[in-house]
UniProtKB/TrEMBL annotation:
Organism: uncultured Caudovirales phage
Protein name stated in the entry: Putative DNA packaging protein
Origin: domain of life: Viruses
Gene3D superfamilies xrefs: Phage gp6-like head-tail connector protein
């Protein structure tokens, strides 16, 4: 898993366990999104992958409306995903 539940909750500043199922689902979705956007071989332990997951999870957590205000994901996320895509297999 790209992030542990506690890591995501800390980033989102969520206390308690009422939202645990939702956040766990968002972690799984973020992991799949990163794999689909980059490559199946992406290193999910890479700090850029973890940052991308945090950005995605926060975006989805804060914008739960089915339609409306959400807009596009940030340019910084797109940049991170491109870097992950082209660094697959790079050991540095």
């Amino acid at each position: 898993m790209v992030l542990k539940l506690e890591e995501a909750k800390e980033y989102l500043r969520v206390d308690g366990n009422e939202e645990d199922m939702l956040i766990t689902s968002l972690i799984t979705a973020a992991e799949q999104y990163i794999k689909n956007s980059t490559s199946k071989d992406v290193n999910l332990n890479d700090e850029l992958a973890k940052l991308a997951a945090r950005i995605l999870i926060a975006h989805w957590y804060e914008n739960r409306e089915p339609v409306g205000k959400t807009g596009k994901l940030s340019f910084s996320l797109q940049s991170i995903l491109i870097q992950l895509q082209y660094s697959v297999g790079d050991s540095t």
